[in-house]
TrEMBL record:
<dbReference type="InterPro" id="IPR037523">
    <property type="entry name" value="VOC_core"/>
</dbReference>
<dbReference type="InterPro" id="IPR051332">
    <property type="entry name" value="Fosfomycin_Res_Enzymes"/>
</dbReference>
<feature type="domain" description="VOC">
    <location>
        <begin position="2"/>
        <end position="122"/>
    </location>
</feature>
<dbReference type="InterPro" id="IPR004360">
    <property type="entry name" value="Glyas_Fos-R_dOase_dom"/>
</dbReference>
<dbReference type="Pfam" id="PF00903">
    <property type="entry name" value="Glyoxalase"/>
</dbReference>
<dbReference type="InterPro" id="IPR029068">
    <property type="entry name" value="Glyas_Bleomycin-R_OHBP_Dase"/>
</dbReference>
<protein>
    <submittedName>
        <fullName>VOC family protein</fullName>
    </submittedName>
</protein>
Length: 128
């Protein structure tokens, strides 16, 4: 079994979908106008972005976020620079222990609709 789908509620479906397309390689798969966009990436992960029932921003719990892993620290640094150049405000790149005593670079950025996104490398990198 594997996790292959995530649904995010937002007040701005178009902007949030465009964020994931532009910065994280998702492509449109299906849509229902401005109410729902289904995105898919190269690994066949399905990300659904939908307008909440009230049209208000989603009320996610404190510290709720989604994360993207990159194999190399240089890729994390490049993504940080790309987001910053696009006018977004990513947090500074910091190191943290994700278990096993290995410190990895990571940062956070707030996507449209107030969705927190983490970018990091897992301990040892994905390819090891």
């Amino acid at each position: 079994m594997r996790l292959q789908h995530l649904n995010l509620a937002t007040s701005d479906v178009t902007a949030l979908a465009a964020f994931f397309e532009r910065f994280f390689g998702f492509a449109p798969y299906a849509s229902r106008g401005e109410a729902l966009v289904v995105l898919r990436n190269k690994e066949d992960f399905i990300l659904t972005v939908m307008r909440g029932r009230t049209g208000e921003p989603a009320d996610y719990p404190a510290n709720f976020h989604i994360g993207f892993y990159y194999d190399e620290a240089a890729d994390v640094e490049a993504k940080h620079a790309e987001l910053k150049a696009a006018g977004l405000d990513p947090s500074r790149i910091a190191s943290m222990d994700r278990g096993g005593g290995v410190r990895v670079p990571h940062f956070y950025v707030t996507a449209p609709g107030n969705v927190l996104v983490e970018v990091c490398t897992p301990p040892g990198g994905l390819s090891s």
